[in-house]
Design a protein that fits this description.
This protein is α+β, with helices and mostly antiparallel strands. Helices cover 29% and strands 24% of the residues.
């Protein structure tokens, strides 16, 4: 049994909150865990948003499990959540599961550079509120015979694929950051790029997307 010793109760609570939000969108969610030293990265992909969500967790001491000094496993998000002990600031790594396709393709670890054009945090939150209101309005206006999954998905693609400000970041990445608790008041987000990837980073987590039209270049398979 591999036990992760988290930095403090706050880190444990934030990890539990992130896992709970992922499970809200997918009860069978899996997460990929990568730990080295005192850093743990938790990757998930809520299907409603079609983005990769990344939560960084601080560990109380460098990860070490026998002769292994790094951790790289895909596990059940639900089982990991059940093992989180807020008061003890620990979590038990569940048994590995067969990972979904996204778990084999992660953003690169390095090479990130700032991208200009990202609106202010308040503007980003206002943007999310506006597009959510637009989605509700447009779907409510549909007559019953047109209220199909295909029609709802079409409206969703039209709205969430729009880009943010003067950037190439799709709106769905900001919506996901807001819904997953990353875009909190007081948090200053940054937009970064590396190869085919765009990443919206805040102190509480990141969302990442691959830019369309760039094929399989610059993909990190780990």
């Amino acid at each position: 049994m591999t036990v992760l010793h988290l930095a403090d109760e706050g880190e444990a609570a934030d990890l539990a909150a992130f896992l709970s939000r992922l499970l809200h969108y997918d009860r069978g969610a899996a997460v990929r865990l990568q730990a080295a030293g005192t850093a743990l990265a938790v990757f998930g992909r809520p299907p409603s948003f079609e983005v990769l969500a990344i939560r960084a967790v601080r560990l109380a001491k460098p990860y070490e499990n026998g002769l292994d000094v790094t951790l790289d496993e895909t596990v059940s998000a639900g089982e990991l959540l059940e093992s989180v002990d807020d008061k003890g600031a620990t979590a038990v790594v569940p048994g590995a599961v067969t990972g979904p396709p996204w778990a084999g393709v992660l953003p690169p670890r390095g090479g990130w550079r700032p991208e200009p054009g990202l609106p202010s945090p308040d503007a980003l939150r206002s943007l999310v509120a506006a597009v959510v209101a637009e989605f509700r309005s447009r779907t409510q206006e549909l007559p019953d015979e047109r209220r199909t999954r295909a029609e709802l998905d079409k409206i969703g693609r039209d709205i969430w694929s729009r880009t943010v400000g003067d950037t190439r970041l799709p709106v769905r990445a900001v919506h996901a950051a807001q819904s997953l608790g990353f875009l909190r008041p007081g948090a200053t987000p940054a937009l970064l790029s590396s190869g085919a990837w765009l990443r919206l980073r805040t102190p509480y987590g990141s969302t990442a997307v691959r830019r369309a039209g760039l094929g399989a270049l610059d993909v990190s398979v780990r």
